[in-house]
């Protein structure tokens, strides 16, 4: 973890305040003055500010039920960030493990543990994400097979990875994918001539969205956290 991030995580200081301390030469790592905020440190390093040893606060892991007209970003844009729902200290120092579009609802995982979120986001990890999808047109009988074989998305070099489609109703399906390309689900249905009119993420790996109201959140259990360790 970056040294400035470690300082924020273990004190009440903001990133800017942490950087100021570093610049002033008030931070030591293993008895050496360090001024570069990007220096990589570990929890077992002896990190001190003004001689006072810092102990990293435990990482936090959260599930949130994302409403529409909110965004999965650390800065507000056209819509506000989902991080505003977190009425906790330093919520905006956390990050979102796998974005949803502004008009998508459902499960969002939020953490300040970059290694943990890497296991969710990295394409190499093939983490499963299941979406409930509402369609404009009736599902065609060959769509499940097409998705199992991979479809060509506009502007992409490779076919999509094998995906599992389960029919729920003529215009409602569950789709499980193991990658997270931009607008992937919407583009997959566009590739077979259909259109997504509603999208909701139900699960990520072994973590299922709890019965939370829109905008509600809770900390993950240790078993849920362990899914991505
Ligand atoms: N695929 C999409 O098209 N949108 C999302 O929000 C998530 C997956």
Order of helices and strands: HHEEEEEEEHEHEEHEEEH
Report strand %: 25-35%
Bound molecules: uracil
Major sheet, described briefly?
Answer: 9 strands, mixed
Give the gist of this structure.
The longest helix has 9 residues, at 15-23. This protein has helices at 3-10, 15-23, 114-121, 143-149, 184-191, 222-226; strands spanning 27-29, 32-33, 47-49, 52-53, 61-66, 95-96, 105-111, 129-135, 164-169, 172-177, 196-204, 207-208, 217-219.
How would you describe the overall organization of this protein?
By secondary structure, this protein is an alpha+beta fold. The protein folds into three domains: 3-53, RNA-binding S4 domain (Structural Genomics Hypothetical 15.5 Kd Protein In mrcA-pckA Intergenic Region, Chain A), CATH 3.10.290.10; 58-127 and 206-229, Alpha-Beta Plaits (2-Layer Sandwich); 128-204, 2-Layer Sandwich (Alpha-Beta Plaits), CATH 3.30.70.1560. It contains six helices and 13 strands. It has helices at 3-10, 15-23, 114-121, 143-149, 184-191, 222-226; strands at 27-29, 32-33, 47-49, 52-53, 61-66, 95-96, 105-111, 129-135, 164-169, 172-177, 196-204, 207-208, 217-219. Strands 5, 6, 7, 8, 9, 10, 11, 12 and 13 form a nine-stranded mixed beta sheet that branches. The protein has a four-stranded antiparallel beta sheet with strand order 2-1-3-4, with no helix packed on it. The longest helix is centred in the N-terminal third of the chain and has 9 residues, at 15-23. The chain is elongated. The two termini are 16 Å apart. The protein binds uracil.
């Amino acid at each position: 973890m970056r040294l400035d991030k470690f300082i924020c995580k273990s004190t009440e200081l903001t990133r800017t305040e942490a950087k100021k301390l570093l610049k002033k030469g008030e931070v030591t790592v293993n008895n050496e003055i360090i001024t570069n905020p990007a220096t990589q440190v570990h929890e077992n390093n002896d990190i001190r500010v003004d001689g006072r040893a810092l102990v990293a606060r435990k990482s936090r892991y959260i599930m949130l039920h994302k409403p529409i007209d909110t965004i999965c970003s650390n800065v507000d844009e056209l819509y506000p960030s989902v991080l505003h729902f977190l009425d906790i200290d330093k919520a905006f120092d956390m990050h979102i493990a796998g974005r949803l579009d502004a008009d998508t609802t459902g499960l969002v995982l939020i953490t300040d543990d970059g290694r943990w979120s890497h296991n969710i986001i990295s394409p190499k990890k093939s983490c499963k994400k299941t979406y409930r999808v509402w369609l404009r047109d009736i599902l065609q009988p060959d769509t499940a097979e097409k998705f199992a074989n991979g479809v060509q998305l506009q502007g992409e070099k490779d076919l999509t990875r094998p995906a599992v489609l389960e029919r729920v109703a003529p215009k409602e399906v569950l789709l499980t994918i193991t990658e997270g390309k931009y607008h992937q689900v919407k583009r997959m249905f566009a590739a077979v001539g259909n259109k997504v009119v509603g999208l909701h993420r139900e699960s990520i790996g072994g973590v299922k969205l709890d019965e939370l109201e829109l905008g509600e959140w809770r900390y993950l259990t240790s078993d849920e956290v362990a899914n991505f360790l």
